[in-house]
Design a protein that fits this description.
Radius of gyration: 16 Å
Order of helices and strands: EEHEEEEHHEHHH
Strand order of the largest sheet: 3-4-5
Shape: globular
Number of strands: 7
Distance between the termini: 20 Å
Strand content: 15-25%
Helix content: 25-40%
Largest sheet: 3 strands, antiparallel
Oligomer: single chain
């Protein structure tokens, strides 16, 4: 994976990444992740989540209301932009933002996700240290699969997290 400085941060707009698109019938990407990552998830005929239980891998928080759960982009959209997604076309950015084919999307505690924001692992790590290994592997896999670059500090932080595997 190429190590490079970030670029084009000043041109980022979240609107460049169309997300939460219809995936299966009435279900959008967010609902699909909630169904996939939850236990005993029930939906109505329009795929609105009516009940379920979610355990956040970032902090072991357990949630019963889907409004308390965010869908996190393992590699945040702004981080992806700065790492090469600025050069993608709109279809590739839409595919990235809605990817169910890799470890890009996770159901997590909302305020923990908000504390992460667009930070890479040199500036943010999950509160639950026992998740560091899986987090680092997932981050690397997503960056590799999508051809995104990595900063030197990001690479060092990931290597440190991987020593816990």
């Amino acid at each position: 994976m190429e190590v490079a400085d970030e670029a084009h941060a000043d041109t980022y707009t979240r609107k460049a990444f169309t997300h939460w698109i219809k995936i299966d019938g009435e279900c959008d990407t967010r609902e699909e992740v909630l169904i996939r990552d939850g236990q005993d998830v029930q939906t109505d005929e329009l795929c609105k989540i009516t009940s379920g239980t979610w355990t956040s891998p970032y902090d072991d928080g357990v949630w019963y209301d889907p409004e308390d759960v965010d869908i996190d982009h393992m590699v945040p959209l702004k981080e992806a932009w700065r790492s090469g997604a600025w050069a993608w076309d709109s279809n590739q950015r839409k595919a990235f933002a809605n990817s169910l084919e890799d470890s890009q999307l996770w159901a997590v505690t909302d305020n923990v996700n908000q504390s992460k924001a667009d930070k890479d692992p040199s500036r943010w790590k999950p509160p639950l240290e026992s998740f560091y290994c899986e987090y680092a592997r997932s981050w690397i896999d997503v960056k590799h699969d999508w051809g995104l670059t990595m900063q030197a500090a990001e690479k060092t932080a990931l290597a440190d997290m991987l020593t816990r595997c």
